[in-house]
Amino acid sequence: MKQSLQLKFSQNLALTPQLQQSIKLLQLSSQELNQELESLLQANPLLERIDGPDGATEISESYSPAPDAAVSAPASEAPAPASEELPRIDEFGGGDDYYESFQGGSRWEEGGANSEDDNDFSFQEAANLTLREHLLSQIKLLPLSERDQTLAMVLVDAINDDGYLEQSLEELAELLPEELEIDPLELETALKHIQNLDPPGIGARNLAECLTLQLRALPAETPFVELAIKVAEQHLPLLASRDYTRLRKLLHCDDDVLKSVQQLVTQLNPRPGGEFSHITSDHYIQHEIVVKKIKGIWVASLNDEVVPKLRINQLYAGILKRNRDSSSQYLMSQMQEAKWMIKNIQQRFSTILRVSQAIVDRQRNFFEHGEVAMRPLVLREIADELGLHESTVSRVTTRKYMLTPRGVYELKYFFGSHVATESGGACSATAIRALIKQMVSEENPKKPLSDNQITDILSKQGIVVARRTIAKYRESLQIPAANQRKSL
């Protein structure tokens, strides 16, 4: 075999650690960004978060945009090219004042200056009452034997967050130790005790039983309660499908009585345990952008509350300035990473703001008139205007939210497909959904519009849409079919 040397030229794309970090930060949501920052702050001693509104001006490496920073700027202050910016890649049911003390997470103060230390309840935080705690507190007040009380507690542990008993009594009896000799009849008796507790409908094994328990808890003089119980026990599927003709025959009543029965059943709570489900801060959406109308112009600005204010730690920076020998290599690398992070955070929010303002400029009619005025928009249109790659715009608009006078929307919401009109124009899918929603809200409840009728109405307005497309849009709006929307 003959050995030889060859010289070849080739091109490849290599992402530096800084570019990889920039891409990663761009696609994170606000909550994920905070989690990422917390881990970096713990790992890098040269990076620190600024506390207080004035901390951002203490050092040049920190970043804190102006509160009402708008996107449009003079040409001399125009943002850097895309290649430099980013790589192209409710209430409780009981109504008792006692339970109101468990709803808040607020702080309160007790007593005056003469209060004893043992009685000082200042800044005590109220706890949220769970469904299990609420039921157990009532069971302890019942005149039950120790065995029956224990069985009732076992059943409480088997009740889910919605208030339903998911397992059968036979299954629960098999799970208990054999030496206790638990009879399913004993569990049935314990379940009856639980079903008499607050909230009404608790401990039911299905929806029909849940509604029946709530109806039986109403005063006996409640009008048509017996008919409502009969519907809940035997004819719930007919009521759900709105088969009023068969219901009238089975109940031997007229439309007025059936309407009263329907109202009585539909006002019940199908999830009696849901009022004890507490929403944590993880379920809240933090918006990055705020849209306001300033002097007749819709302007997007950053939400300062979600923009982290970072800076270089002055103590370690001073050590590096005094010692630049080989022993400080670790601190120098950490200093470089901290500068990268500050720059990438600035770059992330600057790009989000630019994309948001471009969206606002194109969807001004939406902010003025609502969803019916939404125009078709695709990612490439924004990407071409800002000089960004389409994938970058996609990352920016995913899980980033905008607070507007009409509500909070994900940036991705303002993009959508279009449908051609007879005049040669285009109508966005969002606008068509809004028109469908408007038609359904204004329809005659006794004669709801079918998908074919909605198609014909839109066709008269110059919007040509297939019936199956209307059905798809209607289902995405969670609007039932015409036969299920019919009412008495």
List the helices and strands and how they pair.
Layout: H1 17-27, H2 30-43, E1 47-49, H3 82-85, H4 97-100, E2 107-108, E3 124-125, H5 131-139, H6 146-157, H7 169-175, H8 184-195, H9 207-216, H10 225-234, H11 236-240, H12 244-251, H13 255-266, E4 289-294, E5 297-302, E6 310-312, H14 314-322, H15 329-362, H16 364-369, H17 379-386, H18 390-397, E7 401-404, E8 407-410, E9 418-420, E10 426-428, H19 429-442, H20 451-460, H21 467-476, H22 482-485
Short description:
This protein is α+β, with helices and mostly antiparallel strands and 488 residues long.
What features would you describe in this structure?
With 488 residues, the protein is an alpha+beta fold. The protein is built from 22 helices and ten strands. The strands form four sheets. Strands 5-4-7-8 form a four-stranded mixed beta sheet. It has a two-stranded antiparallel sheet with strand order 1-6. Strands 2-3 form a two-stranded antiparallel ribbon. Helix 5 packs antiparallel against helix 6, helix 10 packs across helix 13 and helix 17 packs across helix 18. The chain is extended, with a radius of gyration of 32 Å. About 15% of the residues have low confidence.
Spatial ordering of strands, largest sheet: 5-4-7-8
Low-confidence stretches: 53-126
End-to-end separation in angstroms reads 93 Å
Helix content: 40-55%
- Taken from the alpha-carbon principal axes, the silhouette is extended
**Rg value:** 32 Å
Q: Give the percentage of residues in beta strands.
A: 5-15%
